[in-house]
Amino acid sequence: MSTRRAGPPQGLPMSAQLPLPYENEKKQRSKCMSFVCCMWKVFTCIFSHVTLVAMVVAYCFLGAVTFEHLEAENERNVKRGISSIRVNLTDAIWKMTNDKPVLHQHNWTEAAVIHLQSFEKEILSAMKKDGWDGIEDVDQIQWTFFGALFYSIIVITTIGKSSQGDC
Questions:
Q1: pTM of the model
Q2: Transmembrane segments in this chain: where (predicted)?
């Protein structure tokens, strides 16, 4: 005969012969301990979500403060630049008119068109490159705190959309 065991006796199920320590611990856990474990799971779930939402809100507010600080003064400078462009144009046309002892419509119109074309190019450049919105009032700017907050939220939603599409 062999020295190996033949296995468990035929009549007894396997679980009855080998008690698992995990099952004993599970049975021995009190209702109070089960409640504490359940509450811990709920707390960690809620805490992690609240922390995540708080971090996103803080990121938006920090972004709003940063964008307002960086962009508001630039927007004011662009608006001041537009005013100086207009003043330069009117001064150039006045000087051109004042320098001529006799005005001829054809000559004056040609010179004025040259100045106006230069003015148009500077205005278009300010709109395309500098983001001028057509409003010259220095006190009326787009980069207020709430405008910058809106921009920060848009940046987050745009990043979230593009990263979801990559998966």
A1: 0.50
A2: 35-65, 141-160
